[in-house]
Design a protein that fits this description.
DNA-binding, 8 helices, six-stranded parallel beta sheet, homodimer, 43% helix, two-stranded antiparallel sheet, 16% strand, alpha/beta, 8 strands
Chain lengths: 207, 207
DNA sequence: TAGATTGTTAATCGATTAACAATC
DNA sequence: TAGATTGTTAATCGATTAACAATC
């Protein structure tokens, strides 16, 4: 059965809903209305209901949404109930930060290894380090659901091609480049410089 | 004179155009057509021309766009021809990575100081460290165009309020929270977890 | 029951795409 | 001149907002 295609705009709001629901849960709040969620996300109540309607609707007329249930539904939709094995390629500042960040683990994202071309300073690195030459062998012997690319831009495409050739299908890309990948490979880009330039744009063009 | 309002979607594409133009320039390519740019960004040529038309249009019929000129125009539009004084608040993994990253400097983004509540390990930190108690005084005596918030989510709103009270007007937020700010404060959010969850969504829902 | 609030359809708004005259 | 390609208007498509019957 083919699901309705959910728009990119909706998908990007899901993590925000989730975050606010976590916070409501922590505050011991049991139910929430589309109006309240709308205020929290700074969108309209109509949009909140439309968004959830994409997935079937989780509310109850006259009551609203049960916080825990809605949170769990969103976790399922986003695949946060699963475990992911990840590796990082590129031990720059970002690679190092990601390797040492423990926050993703509680949602099932495990960072198992970090790779670089060069022998690097592994002081204070809380993940096993390997040389790039060991990558192929590593991927052969270990599950790798997601490869994080945190290399410099100029080598990112080569690294990307290499890991895809080893069978990795999902890439989280921090390198400042638009990577080309085959149709069946899923890629998500995050770019600090793009974000900073947008800030700079806003500063330069305030009304 | 009030400028035409440029949509968020267009603004987000500007850094990508810029990046590809830098690359074309480096390759020694002098002119580029909307069609070629469209291929590079994986959008339509029509959209490329519409985007530039928002700012007046920089091309020449029958020829295309001059790479260097277009790049410079976009730099001006995004405010990359200026210098920004920045401080970082929060010496976690991300704060540390940003402090040590030197790549933004060449576009005029200078990171001058980094703050934290606690006395932290300043080994390998390439930016001056201060305690939060010194923040007010620092802001009084030094220009701060942009404050980067890289604290934990739970203290981010307090930190945000504090720096705004000292007169800082522009915030680059890495904390996983939707900050409330006065109307005249400009904020740009970047969220790793949101990006990772979008990836996880795509993996879970590949049609 | 009366009030609240959802799910969903219809209306509106805005962004993307198509088309083409202008012109280099 | 002929071919290429822009800038811009019009058409289409998609996302957001409004409205309201259903119902808890």
């Amino acid at each position: 059965m083919s699901k309705k295609i959910v728009s990119q705009a909706v998908i990007k709001r899901l993590p925000r809903y989730y975050r606010h629901l976590e916070s409501l849960e922590k505050q011991g709040i049991q139910k929430v209305s589309s109006g309240t969620l709308a205020q929290l996300l700074d969108i309209t109540a109509s949009q909140v209901r439309q968004d959830f309607c994409n997935f079937g609707g989780f509310g109850q007329q006259g009551y609203g949404y049960d916080v825990v249930t809605l949170k769990e539904e969103l976790a399922n939709i986003m695949g946060l109930n699963k475990t992911y094995n990840m590796i990082i390629i590129g031990v720059g500042n970002i690679g190092r930060a990601l390797a040492n960040y423990t926050g993703f683990k509680k949602e099932g994202f495990n960072i198992n290894a970090i790779f670089d071309i060069a022998d690097i300073n592994t002081d204070g690195l809380s993940v096993n380090f390997y040389k790039m030459s060991e990558l192929q062998n590593y991927v052969k012997n270990n599950a790798v659901d997601i490869a994080v690319i945190s290399t410099q831009g100029k080598v990112a495409q080569d690294v990307c091609n290499e890991i895809i050739s080893y069978g990795v299908k999902h890439i989280w890309n921090f390198a400042p480049i638009d990577l080309s990948v085959p149709e069946d490979v899923i890629i998500e880009n995050i770019s600090m410089s793009e974000s900073l330039y947008v800030l700079s744009y806003k500063m330069t063009n305030k009304d």
